[in-house]
Amino acid sequence: LEKTHTFEINEYIDEETLKNTKIYKISIKFDEQNLSSVLKIYQDKFSDRIYLANPFKTCIELFHHNTNKFEGVKALCKHFDISLNDALVIGDGDNDIDMLQGVGTSIAVQNAASKIKKCAKYVGPSNNDDAVYHILRTFCDI
């Protein structure tokens, strides 16, 4: 495995370190007022090169534009020779939308935002109420 780094918000990263580091994800926390202007800039200037997820009200995550959870699900399904129609996913945030819409069985947790629930075929219990356990028992008889 490659060596990975996590840089905390209070660290300054010199240009040489940055040039020699593969970046897989950048998470940035904003106050709600600044977040909307950042989202607008992203949409206008970077949406063709960077995939942005907004998993929480004050946080964005930046990825390579061909990377998201659904791409990971597709890779796993291909590796294990599973049809996407036979896959089951559970989601609760904006970064789960592509994944929820792309498989045969998709479940949003009860405490997800309504726009996330609309993307899923089913709504399960809250993730505060052991959602994964109940969903796997119900759908996979585990």
Automatic annotation (TrEMBL):
The keyword Phosphoprotein does not apply. SUPFAM superfamilies: HAD-like. Coiled coil: none annotated. Pfam families: Hydrolase_3 (PF08282). GO terms for molecular function: magnesium ion binding; phosphatase activity. The keyword Hydrolase applies. GO terms for cellular component: cytosol. Keywords: Hydrolase. This is Haloacid dehalogenase-like hydrolase/Sucrose-6F-phosphate phosphohydrolase, putative. The lineage of its organism: Eukaryota, Sar, Alveolata, Apicomplexa, Aconoidasida.
